[in-house]
Design goal:
two-stranded antiparallel ribbon; alpha+beta; 2 helices; 22% helix; 46 residues
Length: 46
């Protein structure tokens, strides 16, 4: 995962979220199963 590779720790990824509902690209997002994912990570020393 990119966050861990760049030094972040305690990386947590949440459940998929429909971020395209009502948007112009909603149909394309549905076709390709595109979702947004919330994430939380900690930067050591920061």
């Amino acid at each position: 995962m990119i966050l861990a590779e760049t030094g972040f720790t305690d990386v947590a990824v949440g459940d998929p979220v429909d971020t395209f509902g009502g948007a112009d690209g909603e149909r394309n997002a549905r076709t390709f199963d595109v979702f947004g994912y919330p994430f939380l990570a900690r930067r050591p020393g920061g």
